[in-house]
Design a protein that fits this description.
It is a single chain. With about 625 residues, the protein is α/β, with parallel strands linked by helices. The chain folds into three domains: about 350 residues, ABC transporter transmembrane region fold (Up-down Bundle); about 180 residues, Rossmann fold (3-Layer(aba) Sandwich); about 80 residues, 3-Layer(aba) Sandwich (Rossmann fold), CATH 3.40.50. It is about 60% helix and about 10% strand. The chain has 19 helices and ten strands. Helix 3 packs parallel to helix 6, helix 4 packs antiparallel against helix 6 and helix 7 runs parallel beside helix 10. The termini are far apart. About 35% of the residues are buried.
Length: about 625
C-alpha cells in the first residue's frame, strides 16, 4: 500500500515533459515560479501537512504540562477514572496521528517533490540551453554552463521547499508556542517575544551577508568547474605542449578565489553561531526565571513550568536548525540569482512564430546583399566581416570557396546554417528566406564535413547514425564501407569490452586517429544524404592513400547535390564547376580553375604559392 502510494506521488508530475522548450523569466520570483508551477498542488499539500505537524507537536508539550498537573492533583486510581479518555486520546495522537501525519508529509516531500522537482528543472533548462546559439557557447565555459544548470535546479527546489515547508512549519510552531505561553500567563510570553526580536535582528544582520557571499561562491564554484573541465577536455593539447604546470596555476587561481569565499562564509558562520548561542542562553534563563517567579506566587502551575521549559528547550534545539535553514535559503537564493544570468538569457537565434519547414526541391542557394559583423560596431572605414555581398549557387552546382584566412569563407557557411542572424540582406534556399523557416529543417537539409571533426562520446554506430536516427544497422555499415571506414571499425574495442560498431569512441572521438574520425564523419554525411553538402577541408586529416580510396565515394556523395567546398589545399577543389575567391568579406574573383589561372589575379597568386604535394596537378584533370 505504501509502495503504491509512493509510486502514485512519483508519477503525478512528469519529470521529462515533451513541451517545446521555452526560457524562464529573468526575474527571481518569475524564474522560481516557472519551475515550481507544475508542483503547486503538491507544494500546498506538503505545506498543510507541515502546519498540522507543527500544531500537533506544540500540543504535545501542552499535554505534557496537563499530565504533570494531573499527576500532582490526583491519585493513580482517580487519574484513570477522571482522565482515562483524555489519556487514551493523547496516546493515540502521539502514537498514531503524529507518525501518520509525518509519514504522509515526508512522502509528499520526498517522493512527490525532491526528486522530480530538481530533475524536471534540469530537463527543462537543458533543453532550452541546448538550443542556444553557437555564440552563447563560444562566450562561456561549457563546464560552467553545465555546473550552473545542475546546481541552479537544486537551488530552485530548495528555495521553494524551505519557504513553503520549513519556514511555514517554523512560523506556525512559534505562533502556537506563544499562544500556549500566553494562555498560562501573558508574562511567560515576554521572554519569548524578546528572543524572537533578537532572533530577527540576527537574521537581518547576517543573512544578507551570507546571501552575497553565497552568490559569489556559486560563481566561483562554476568557474572552477569550467576551468577544470576545460583542461580535461583539451588534455591532448596540455600533454603536447607539456603545460601541466600552467594548468595547475590556472586551476589554482580559480580554486583560490573559491576558497577565499569559503573562508569569508566560515568566519561569518562562526560569529553567527556564537551570537545565537548567547541569545538561546538568555531565553532559557529568562523563561525559567519568569516561570519560577510566577509559580512562587501561585499564578502558574507546576505543569505550566514543565511545558514552558520543555518547549523552550525544544525551540532552542530547533533554533540552530532554523537559522541554518534560513541561511541555506539565502545561499540558494544567491545560487539561483547566479544561475539566472546563464539559464534565463534570451536566445539570440530563434524561429519566427509562423516559421515553416524548409522544402528543398532544387537546391539553389542565394546570398542576397548580405551584411554581417558578429554584432560588433566598427568604424565605417574598417567595414564589416561581410558587407553587401551577393552570390548564387545554381541547383546541383559544385562550387569551391577560396581565400586567405579571415576572408569570410567560414562565416559564409555559418550564416547559411543560420548559426548567426544577418545584420542586413537575406539568404534564400529555393526562394525561401532561411530566417523564416524552422532551424531544424534548415540544418536537416544540409550535410557538412569539417576539418576538425568532434565525435560524441558514444558508440561508433550512434555517431554514424546521428543525422538519421531511424537508420538500420545495415545502412550504417553500408555508409561506413562507402567511406572506407568499416575495416578499422570492426577492429575497435573499448575498455568495457564493446567491439566494432558498439565500441565507444571517447570524448570528442579521442580514441580514434584524425583520419579515422574523418571517415566516421564522412560515413555520417553519406547516411544523412542531404540535398546540400558543405565540405570544409573534408579530406585534410586523411593520408594520400585513404584520400584516394574514398575519392570515388565523394563523387557519389556529391552526385545530384548542391555542393559548397572550402579548401586551403587548392588542388582538392580545382575540378569544381566554379571557384569563388573571397578577400576581406567580398567576392573578388570567380570562374573555373583555368579561367582564374589565366586571369593572373589573387587565385593565381595563391595557386603559385602552393608546391609539392599540395599541387597534385593530376587532380585538376
Amino acid at each position: 500500500m505504501i509502495s503504491r502510494f509512493n509510486s502514485w506521488l512519483e508519477s503525478l508530475v512528469d519529470a521529462f515533459p515533451a513541451d517545446p522548450p521555452v526560457g524562464p523569466p529573468s526575474t527571481f520570483w518569475g524564474f522560481v515560479g516557472f519551475y515550481a508551477r507544475p508542483f503547486w498542488p503538491l507544494i500546498v499539500a506538503s505545506s498543510l501537512f507541515a502546519i498540522a505537524i507543527a500544531v500537533v507537536e506544540v500540543l504535545m508539550f501542552a499535554f505534557l504540562g496537563d499530565i504533570v498537573d494531573w499527576l500532582a492533583a490526583t491519585t493513580p486510581e482517580q487519574l484513570w477514572d477522571e482522565r482515562g479518555l483524555e489519556l487514551v486520546l493523547i496516546g493515540l495522537m502521539v502514537v498514531v496521528l503524529y507518525p501518520l501525519l509525518y509519514l504522509i508529509g515526508e512522502a509528499i516531500s520526498h517522493q512527490g517533490l525532491m526528486g522530480n522537482f530538481a530533475m524536471r528543472a534540469r530537463w527543462v533548462s537543458h533543453r532550452y540551453l541546448l538550443r542556444q546559439s553557437i555564440a552563447f557557447y563560444q562566450d562561456d565555459f561549457a563546464g560552467r554552463v553545465a555546473a550552473r544548470m545542475m546546481q541552479t535546479a537544486l537551488a530552485v527546489r530548495d528555495v521553494v521547499l524551505k519557504m513553503t515547508e520549513i519556514l511555514l512549519f517554523v512560523a506556525v510552531y512559534f505562533v502556537s508556542a506563544l499562544v500556549l505561553f500566553a494562555s498560562a500567563d501573558w508574562r511567560l510570553s515576554l521572554p519569548m517575544l524578546a528572543w524572537l526580536l533578537g532572533y530577527f535582528v540576527i537574521l537581518r544582520v547576517f543573512i544578507p551577508r551570507l546571501a552575497t557571499i553565497s552568490r559569489e561562491q556559486a560563481n566561483a564554484r562554476a568557474d572552477v568547474t569550467g576551468r577544470v573541465v576545460d583542461s580535461y577536455t583539451h588534455i591532448g593539447t596540455v600533454k603536447m605542449f607539456a603545460d601541466a604546470d600552467y594548468e595547475d596555476d590556472y586551476a589554482r587561481t580559480g580554486m583560490r578565489r573559491f576558497l577565499h569565499t569559503v573562508y569569508r562564509q566560515m568566519r561569518l558562520s562562526t560569529v553567527l553561531s556564537a551570537s545565537l548561542a548567547f541569545l538561546n542562553a538568555l531565553l532559557v534563563f529568562s523563561v525559567a526565571a519568569t516561570a519560577i517567579a510566577l509559580w512562587s506566587t501561585d499564578i502558574v502551575t507546576t505543569g505550566a513550568i514543565a511545558f514552558a521549559v520543555g518547549l523552550v528547550l525544544r525551540l532552542i534545539g530547533m533554533s540552530n536548525w532554523i537559522l541554518w535553514e534560513v541561511a541555506g535559503l539565502f545561499e540558494n537564493v544567491g545560487v539561483v540569482m547566479d544561475g539566472i544570468d546563464t539559464i534565463a538569457r534570451e536566445r539570440a537565434v530563434v524561429d519566427q512564430p509562423d516559421a515553416r519547414p524548409l522544402v528543398v526541391t532544387r537546391g539553389e542557394i542565394t546570398w542576397d546583399n548580405i551584411t554581417f559583423n558578429y554584432g560588433k560596431v566598427l568604424p565605417e572605414a574598417n567595414g564589416s566581416v561581410i558587407d553587401g555581398m551577393s552570390l548564387t549557387i545554381e541547383p546541383g552546382e559544385k562550387v569551391g570557396l577560396v581565400g586567405r584566412s579571415g576572408a569570410g569563407k567560414s562565416t559564409l557557411v555559418n550564416l547559411l546554417l543560420r548559426f548567426h542572424d544577418l545584420e542586413g540582406g537575406r539568404i534564400l534556399i529555393d526562394g525561401q528566406d532561411i530566417a523564416t523557416v524552422q532551424q531544424d529543417t534548415l540544418r536537416a537539409a544540409i550535410s557538412m564535413v569539417t576539418q576538425d571533426t568532434s565525435l560524441l562520446h558514444r558508440t561508433v554506430a550512434e555517431n554514424i547514425a546521428y543525422g538519421r536516427a531511424n537508420a538500420t544497422r545495415d545502412q550504417i555499415v553500408a555508409a561506413a564501407r562507402q567511406a572506407e571506414a568499416h575495416d578499422f571499425i570492426v577492429e575497435l574495442e573499448d575498455l568495457k569490452g564493446n567491439r566494432g560498431y558498439d565500441a565507444h569512441v571517447g570524448e570528442r572521438g579521442v580514441k580514434l586517429s584524425g583520419g579515422q574520425r574523418q571517415r566516421v564523419a564522412i560515413s555520417r554525411v553519406l547516411l544523412k544524404d542531404s540535398p546540400i553538402l558543405i565540405l570544409d577541408e573534408a579530406t585534410s586529416a586523411l593520408d594520400s592513400e585513404v584520400e584516394a580510396a574514398i575519392q570515388q565515394s565523394f563523387y557519389s556523395l556529391m552526385e545530384g547535390k548542391t555542393v559548397l567546398a572550402i579548401a586551403h589545399r587548392l588542388s582538392t577543389i580545382a575540378a569544381m564547376d566554379r571557384l569563388i575567391v573571397m578577400d576581406q568579406g567580398q567576392i573578388v574573383e570567380q570562374g573555373t580553375h583555368e579561367e582564374l589561372i589565366h586571369r593572373n589575379g589573387l587565385y593565381a597568386e595563391l595557386w603559385s604559392r602552393q608546391s609539392g604535394g599540395f599541387l597534385a596537378q593530376d587532380a585538376v584533370a
